[in-house]
Amino acid sequence: MKGLRLNIVSPEEELFDGEVDSVTLPGEIGSFTILPRHAPIISALRAGTLSYVTKDGEEHSREINGGFIEMNGNNVSVCID
């Protein structure tokens, strides 16, 4: 199964750009996970933990203050505060 292309940016810099197996995000009404072939989605994010698993199995996490996410065609774009 093809992985997700994840791009995480802040107003200052690009924080990550690469292929991942999954992304978990703090949505406005609760945390949610995006896997490959997820339906398109646009959502606001609240303060919390953004985490993702890279193709080599490494888990990464980062505290965020909010932001937005767009998922379309196995591409996940996250803009965080």
Automatic annotation (TrEMBL):
<keyword id="KW-0406">Ion transport</keyword>
<keyword id="KW-0472">Membrane</keyword>
<dbReference type="Pfam" id="PF02823">
    <property type="entry name" value="ATP-synt_DE_N"/>
</dbReference>
<keyword id="KW-0139">CF(1)</keyword>
<dbReference type="InterPro" id="IPR001469">
    <property type="entry name" value="ATP_synth_F1_dsu/esu"/>
</dbReference>
<dbReference type="GO" id="GO:0046933">
    <property type="term" value="F:proton-transporting ATP synthase activity, rotational mechanism"/>
</dbReference>
<dbReference type="GO" id="GO:0045259">
    <property type="term" value="C:proton-transporting ATP synthase complex"/>
</dbReference>
<keyword id="KW-0813">Transport</keyword>
<feature type="domain" description="ATP synthase F1 complex delta/epsilon subunit N-terminal">
    <location>
        <begin position="4"/>
        <end position="80"/>
    </location>
</feature>
<comment type="function">
    <text>Produces ATP from ADP in the presence of a proton gradient across the membrane.</text>
</comment>
<comment type="similarity">
    <text>Belongs to the ATPase epsilon chain family.</text>
</comment>
<dbReference type="InterPro" id="IPR036771">
    <property type="entry name" value="ATPsynth_dsu/esu_N"/>
</dbReference>
<keyword id="KW-0066">ATP synthesis</keyword>
<protein>
    <submittedName>
        <fullName>ATP synthase F1 subunit epsilon</fullName>
    </submittedName>
</protein>
<dbReference type="GO" id="GO:0012505">
    <property type="term" value="C:endomembrane system"/>
</dbReference>
<comment type="subunit">
    <text>F-type ATPases have 2 components, CF(1) - the catalytic core - and CF(0) - the membrane proton channel. CF(1) has five subunits: alpha(3), beta(3), gamma(1), delta(1), epsilon(1). CF(0) has three main subunits: a, b and c.</text>
</comment>
<dbReference type="InterPro" id="IPR020546">
    <property type="entry name" value="ATP_synth_F1_dsu/esu_N"/>
</dbReference>
